[in-house]
Amino acid sequence: MSAAPEIAMHDCRKAFAQTLIELARADERIVAVCNDSVGSSNLGGFREEFPERLINVGIAEQNMVGVAAGLANAGYLPFVSAASPFLTGRATEQIKADIVYSGANVKLCGQSPGVSYGELGPTHHSIEDIAWMRALDDLPIVVPADPEQTVEAVRWAAEVEGPVFLRIGRYKVPSVSEGQVPAFRPGRAEQLTDGDDVTLVANGTMVTVALQAAGQLEASGIRARVLNMATVHPLDHESLLRAARETRGIVTVEESVPRGGLGGAAAEFLAENQPARMRLLGTHEFAVTGDVEYLFDRFDLTPGGVADAARNLLAT
Questions:
Q1: Which residues of the chain have pLDDT under 70?
Q2: Helix ranges restricted to H, the chain
Q3: Which of 206, 207, 219, 234 would be a feasible disulfide site paired with 145, CB 3.0-4.6 Å?
Q4: Domain that holds residue 211
């Protein structure tokens, strides 16, 4: 018996960095602003090709966002790239006042979100970033699931006028949108599987987990619809309404706090427009120190955990 083909795994940060280089070749306004994070943001190639267009402010995130706002006001197109816990946590006031309130044309790129930093613990986990950013008026929030979506989301962010928050995953993931054209549509969910029993709504790293959970459910006779909800704001209301009307329950899955995150956004909308039975999976407490696999297991962010949540929901 031949071995199953190995699934290719990809680093979305590399897709982000390479796309930024390609965009910068065509647009001299593009600059990268970072906080001593050239390596973790994969900006080494950008620095080599455009040394005068990379501004490294050091470990000073509030200053980093202020510098980016100033560059935007001067006609540049800044991509701010930093670890998401420090970009969104330490510089929330500057993001609110200098970027979102002012409508500055700055692209905020939160790298290594969720529990990506594993053993570094709660200070480095970025599980609140979506909730924080969702609270800021009309800021678009995009959480790509794979390199194809990352590439298209970065290109879209460069074209749209005004602030954008991109959440770029740290560890490698398989492609979930290969063959889809386009792989990313702002404000639109991509339906990856069909099903009329339960809907699994996920984004980022959790889309792969949701697809695997759908496979487990299929084996037990439960047909799961999987929605890749890459845009948390604006949310795809039409897809959620169809899910609430056409399936018997909805499970949201995210590598973040559901309170104010993807789960919260979906629940808020459906509560007012089409009440549905729901389970909101995510990180519900400060994540303890441990590697990523341990943390995912702790929070039931595994194919088995998601499948069990769907079964329990349907059984109620």
A1: 1-5
A2: 12-26, 44-49, 61-73, 84-90, 92-94, 129-134, 147-159, 206-219, 237-246, 262-273, 292-298, 303-315
A3: 207
A4: 190-315
